[in-house]
Amino acid sequence: MRKFKVLIIAILVLSLVISSLLGGCEPAKTSQLKVVTSTSLMAQIVERVGGDLVDVVNIIPPAQCPGHFDVKPGDIQKLAEADLFLLHGWQGEIFSQDLIASANNPDLTVV
């Protein structure tokens, strides 16, 4: 009877140890690609194509002309934290080069 109790206690302790070791094992989460777009149209395309793999932020409001857009400090911060900056390259996006320089993000890819 004593051996049976010791066996039960050993099994319980072993199962607790194993469950505590395996409790912290989760699959590694893939980090999302942080994408900043100059227009809402590009943001929608990237969201549809990238799905859950991308975190998309648009800097020019949907109904605003890019030529009349004023950069805000928050826009610079968004670009400083981004992995990718997508812009159309229209003549109206004259703010883009100054915005990229102000972000001071050497890892930023501009397309």
Automatic annotation (TrEMBL):
Gene Ontology biological process: cell adhesion; metal ion transport
Entry-linked InterPro entries: AdhesinB, Bact_metal-bind_prot9, Lipoprotein_PsaA-like, ZnuA-like
Key words of the record: Metal-binding, Signal, Transport
Subcellular location: Cell envelope
MF (Gene Ontology): metal ion binding
Pfam family, one: ZnuA
Main location: other
Gene3D superfamilies, per database record: Nitrogenase molybdenum iron protein domain (3.40.50.1980)
PROSITE patterns tied to this protein: PROKAR_LIPOPROTEIN
Gene Ontology CC annotations of this record: cell envelope
Entry protein name: Zinc ABC transporter substrate-binding protein
Organism: marine sediment metagenome
Lineage: unclassified sequences, metagenomes, ecological metagenomes
